[in-house]
Amino acid sequence: MQESDLINVSVVGFAPAQQSGGFVIVLKEDDSNRCLPIVVGPAEAQAISMILNPTPVERPMTHDTFKNMFDALRGEIRRIAITKLVEHTFFADIWLCNTSGDNFHLDARPSDAIAIALRNNAPICVARAVMDEAGVEMSHDAREAADKTPAERLAAAQEALQKALDEERYEDAAQVRDELRKLQAEQGDAAQEQP
Length: 195
Known about the structure:
Elements: E1 6-17, E2 22-29, E3 34-40, H1 42-52, H2 62-72, E4 76-86, E5 89-97, E6 103-108, H3 110-119, E7 124-127, H4 128-134, E8 136-137, H5 140-145, H6 150-168, H7 171-193
Parallel strand pairs: 4-7
Antiparallel strand pairs: 1-2, 1-7, 2-3, 3-8, 4-5, 5-6
């Protein structure tokens, strides 16, 4: 895959999908208002959350072990890329460079690849064809919120996800849409209960 076929993105938040037991990670295109929602399992979401909000752990997580191993071998993680979407399933590659300067890539689940990229401060990319197929536009307000506090980023992600779910019509997207509506209603109820 050529560099020109890739779009740089950032993780702007994630939200629970309670019916499926998973979470949705939102990747926002740099210098654009498009984002890509990806459904991941709870363990994978927890790993990503622990990187975004550093939490001390007694033993290394899988992405920590991967980083430690690659650091010991003096290799470099160049980037990760969400490379394709097949029947509602995303695929990813981790691009590496070894001490001899050889570049190669490994097939990976997007959630693992994202965790590894975040842990190693490596760029996260999405294939242009994938973003064109599954990406959704964030509203101006959601785009502004994505650059603010974590609570505001979550709100922006929820808005973007709602649009994604309405437009994409994937089976899991419908479940996430329903759960996001419930979460929004619960947050509204909690706000009303406060004195």
